[in-house]
Design brief:
This protein has 511 residues and is an alpha/beta fold. The chain has 13 helices and 21 strands. It has an 8-stranded mixed β-sheet with strand order 8-7-9-3-10-14-4-15, sandwiched between helices. A hairpin with a 5-residue loop joins strand 11 and strand 12. The protein binds zinc ion.
């Protein structure tokens, strides 16, 4: 496929087939047409800005100060957010890495692109590991064709070239190595590898706050009870000293998870005691602080290179959060807001500063929005996208937007969020539908399903239409995923998936 180089957009209408067209962003004028009564196009620079997405894997929004967290996990990010446009209601379309990233890169839902972390098969059969269709049109591909230099600096794990994620990136570098290392790698690309005559798109991803937790002691001290002597302190200490001597050694992450953390965590279906839970949360917060320090350094280093909000649009976001038994589980396999609610902070030329917006957005909005801000003309925007262009120059929220979330393993969960209400459905398991109202109950503790049965009934036709539309959209845009068997993964890839808790070695034949 070929796209022309960036041009100034003159007209744009993007309309998700799931949401009513009247609610979608509709732009009907060029920048000279600021006539009263005519919806003005979002104001953007005529020089395509650099684009940088800083994606903090597993970062739940409410553990950042910018989203109300009390403990000082994120001073650098918080102060950055104060000068930025903050979206308070941003959501991940899935609760795990691969589907959320594929949605960000293609602006389609996981059910359409099919790139789940893993797809279980029948009893006794190994799961499969889907790859993004090579026919998918990705954010990086369009930017690359539009004259951007593109690089992805990622932190290993599920973000692998052979899962289809490298499409459109001139440089793809993915290795489990932490935020500091990834920031250094990104700076090296900026300094010595990119084409300085072109605007750049840098996708910078870190697993710093993902399990297995390996924060440095100086950060743990800031959040942990110094008197805690339980099994998780020992697990963290043993894991850290092992990692210090074996970083980069094949199987090290798997060993850390299996030999140190797993024996210290409660068995499945059980919850930890208060002291263990507090220390586990302290480790997560320490990881956030360590990531935050790296982020602060990144911003300083960018400024030293003349890469500033005047010429570069930075989006800080995540692919999903983390739950700590608020709903019976640890990790990120469910789609309660502990995992669905993510940060979404933007700053760049033309964006508002010091403004918070409460209209809902999701990761599907990233691709059309960044393409728009890159100046790509509507005729050349991929028709496969389902997200919207967000106007970063406006305080006004557009109309309602239905946000859909999904998880496929170990239980199929499906969420449907309209306004303050969210229905959670569990197709296949027989578990009853749940309903939550965020205006009253942001922690999703009071299930309203019995009291709001008529609302659940009223959205059934929408759910049905959405599911049918997803099947058609996948077919129309050739988005059916490729398939990779466990046996075709390298040993290093298997170790990484097991080490990060995505695969239980006992369920894999011959492992
Ligand atoms: Zn992730």
């Amino acid at each position: 496929m070929k796209f022309p180089r960036a041009r100034i957009l003159t007209a744009l209408t993007l309309c998700s087939a799931i949401n009513a067209c009247g609610d979608a962003t509709t732009i009907d004028s060029d920048r000279s047409g600021d006539d009263a009564g005519m919806m003005a196009a979002p104001l953007r620079s005529e020089t395509p800005p650099n684009l940088l997405v800083f994606l903090i894997d597993t970062q739940r929004a409410d553990y950042l100060g910018a989203y109300g967290h009390a403990a000082p996990t994120s001073p650098e990010l918080d102060s950055y957010a104060q000068e930025s446009l903050v979206f308070e209601r941003a959501y991940a379309p899935a609760s795990s890495t691969s589907p959320s990233h594929a949605s960000l890169f293609t602006s389609t839902h996981p059910r359409i692109h099919g790139v789940w972390n893993r797809v279980p098969r029948g009893e006794g059969e190994d799961p499969i590991f889907p790859a993004l269709s090579p026919k998918a049109i990705t954010l990086a591909e369009v930017l690359n064709e539009a004259g951007y230099d593109t690089a992805a600096i990622c932190d290993g794990g599920n973000l692998q070239e052979n899962r289809g994620f490298a499409q459109g990136f001139s440089v793809w570098d993915s290795k489990f190595s932490g935020a500091e290392n990834r920031v250094d790698r990104a700076l090296r690309w900026l300094d010595t590898e990119r084409d300085a005559d072109l605007p750049f798109f840098l996708f910078l991803h870190t697993y710093q706050v993902h399990t297995p937790y390996l924060p440095e002691e100086q950060y743990v001290e800031q959040f942990a009870d110094p008197n805690y002597r339980g099994p998780l302190r020992e697990a963290w200490q043993r894991a850290s000293s092992f990692w210090a001597s074996s970083s980069g050694v094949r199987g090290a992450i798997r060993k850390i998870q299996g030999d140190f953390y797993k024996p210290a965590l409660p068995a499945e279906g059980e919850a930890p005691n208060a002291e263990d839970l507090a220390f586990l949360k302290a480790l997560y917060q320490a990881e956030i602080k360590q990531m935050d320090t790296a982020f602060g350094r990144l911003v300083d280093e960018l400024a030293a290179r003349g890469i500033t909000p005047d010429n570069t649009l930075i989006l800080i976001t995540s692919d999903h959060g983390e739950e700590f038994w608020e709903h019976g589980q640890y990790g990120h396999h469910q789609i309660y807001d502990t995992t669905a609610h993510i940060p979404f902070i933007v700053r760049g030329p033309g964006t508002l500063s010091g403004v918070r917006r409460s209209d809902p957005v999701d990761l599907l909005d990233v691709m059309p929005t960044l393409l728009y801000w890159a100046g790509i003309e509507v005729d050349y925007l991929p028709p496969s996208m389902l997200g919207r262009v967000l106007d970063f120059g406006s305080k006004d929220a557009p109309g309602n937007y239905t946000v859909v979330g999904e998880s496929n393993w170990p239980e199929h969960q499906w969420s449907w969020r309209v306004g303050d209400r969210k229905a959670m459905l569990f197709p296949g398991s027989g578990r009853a539908t749940e309903v939550y109202d965020f205006a009253q109950d942001p922690g999703e503790q009071d299930d309203l399903a019995a009291r709001q049965a008529s609302w659940v009934e009223s959205v059934q036709p929408d759910l049905q239409a959405w599911a049918e539309h997803a099947v058609q959209w996948q077919s129309d845009h050739q988005l059916a995923p490729g398939v990779r068997d466990w046996n075709k993964l390298t040993q290093a890839e298997r170790d990484a998936l097991i080490g990060m808790g995505y695969v239980d070695p006992e369920e894999i034949d011959g492992n």
